[in-house]
Specification:
heterodimer; A: alpha/beta; 8-stranded parallel beta barrel; 14% strand; globular; B: 194 residues; alpha/beta; 7-stranded mixed sheet; 3-stranded mixed sheet; 5 helices; 38% strand
Chain lengths: 296, 194
């Protein structure tokens, strides 16, 4: 008896990506650069977040033809984004056999009330979060992987760090409650998070999210990637940070090496040398649109 | 006391460390399971595990760390999924610059089952007993040559095998025993302690 599309298979693929770097790409050429640099997967999208931010308007799922070209160009997993709540875009991405679907706040949300019911899909989903409540809501909807949202396309790591710390703090709090057997407070937390108590207790017992958790949004340098990993995430997504820099191939390779050796400052120093210009960064307060507040 | 390293650049490293520790405890074999990221980390290892992950990425990071030739000197190596690819003599559907360690006499096809939608799990029989097997974007062993002993098949396909060359042993699985059982880790440890 063969079983496909089980949660173990969905979360299992994310387990195999841990420690790695997943890169945003908009065409086959970018995808090949990412693979050659050592990316563990690529994320196919129409425009990188910095361009979505600059161009404005509604951002949607990529053209299927572009996704197919990217799938043909590389041998590593290919992920793609759908709009929050847009389950038909998700169906299309599943039909295209992408390896992971990112239900992403970087695209313009399609539904302000509901996320996609991810349990209905055999392709796994990754979703963004800003804190433990958002993370657990997405997991209870069937997400097999989580990423902290950060502020995509900003070139500024501050929001990613805020979200990593918020998740860590949330876990520490429920861990404390479990240790002190404060069941009523755990129940209150589950109620506040709008998730089953079972999931809160499971997370408290594990002392971490029950699925793989990457960082995303604003990672622009090798040191940014290592910072996220030292704070305890399992890997990183790099969006605009690579292809909006002056030397994408070198920067991509440097970020991969920094992620693999994230505790080795000598190594991070070495790979950071002479990388050219990083993507232009922006102060969060000056941003016209805050992508992270979409889809809570 | 034996030291087992897990190649720790990326992949399901923690799962392999946990499975190794659980297997050692079960067998009461004094073992230290450690992460391996540099050439120096390869010193004084009695065995190395290459985890699941992306074989292209693992190859590049091993090369950049100058570990390639030194890994080949290790007597006991166990590879799962991407790790099995790394051990093979020949790979199909490789990424342009990708190389493999060429330690086991087998030909392996990357992502041979297809994309993630084709990933599957199944109860299988192996020479080490029955177990649940998880295949995630798994490679297929297309053929094995002289000296390779088959440890498990799925229908007609070889999914686990070993090759002993003198005191060396190489062990490869297309699936991820580290996610479901310690049987393969127990077997590997017993070989290391022989």
């Amino acid at each position: 008896m063969i079983a496909k599309g089980t949660f173990r298979l969905k979360s299992g693929l994310a387990q195999m990506l841990k420690g790695g770097v997943i890169m945003d790409v908009v065409n086959a050429e970018h995808a090949r650069i990412a693979e050659a640099a050592g990316a563990v997967a690529v994320m196919a999208l129409e425009r990188v977040p910095a361009d979505i931010r600059a161009d404005g308007g509604v951002a949607r799922m990529s053209d299927p033809a572009v996704i197919r070209k990217i799938q043909k160009a590389v041998t590593i997993p290919v992920m793609a984004k759908c709009r929050i709540g847009h389950f038909v875009e998700a169906q299309v991405l599943q039909a295209l056999k992408v390896d992971y679907i990112d239900e992403s706040e970087v695209l313009t949300p399609a539904d302000e009330e509901f996320h996609v019911d991810k349990t209905k899909f055999s392709v796994p989903f990754v979703c963004g979060c800003r804190d433990l409540g958002e993370a657990l809501r997405r997991i209870s909807e069937g997400a097999a992987m989580i990423r902290t949202k950060g502020e995509a396309g900003s070139g500024n790591i501050v929001e990613a760090i805020r979200h990593i710390r918020a998740v860590n703090r949330g876990i520490a709090i429920i861990q404390g409650l479990l240790k002190q057997k404060k069941t009523a407070k755990l129940k209150a937390a589950a109620k506040e998070f709008l998730v089953p108590l079972k999931l809160v207790i499971q997370t408290a017992k594990l002392g971490r999210l029950p699925v793989v958790n990457f960082a995303a949004g604003g990672i622009a340098t090798p040191a940014d990637a290592a910072l996220c990993l030292q704070l305890g995430v399992d890997g990183v997504f790099v969006g605009s940070g690579i292809f909006k820099s002056s030397d994408p191939a070198r920067r991509a390779k440097a970020i991969v090496e920094a992620a693999a050796h994230y505790n080795d400052a000598q190594k991070i120093a070495q790979v950071s040398e002479g990388l050219g210009e990083a993507m232009p960064g922006q102060e969060i307060d000056k941003l016209a649109t805050r992508l992270a507040s979409r889809g809570i | 006391m034996k030291r087992i390293g897990v190649l720790a650049f990326h992949g399901d490293v923690i799962e392999h460390l946990q499975a190794t520790r659980a297997a050692a405890e079960k067998l009461k074999l004094k073992t230290k399971a450690v992460e391996v990221r540099t050439k120096n980390d390869l010193d004084n290892l009695n065995g190395l595990i290459i985890p699941g992950g992306e074989s292209t990425t693992l190859f590049k990071l091993c090369q950049q760390a100058g570990m390639w030739e030194k890994i080949k000197q290790i007597d006991h190596i166990f590879g799962t999924c991407a790790g099995a690819i790394m051990l093979a003599k020949k790979i199909l559907h490789k990424e342009a610059e990708q190389q493999v360690l060429e330690l086991m006499n087998l030909t392996i096809d990357r992502n041979a089952y297809g994309r993630q939608t084709e990933s599957f799990e199944k109860k299988i029989k192996t020479q080490l007993g029955p177990m649940e097997a998880v295949f995630i974007r798994a490679p297929k062993i297309i053929s094995v040559g002289r000296g390779v002993k088959i440890l498990a098949k799925n229908n007609s396909e070889i999914i686990a095998c070993e090759q002993k060359i003198g005191r060396k042993i190489y062990l490869a699985t297309c699936f991820h025993p580290e996610l479901t059982t310690t049987k393969f880790h127990e077997y590997f440890l017993k070989e290391v302690f022989k």
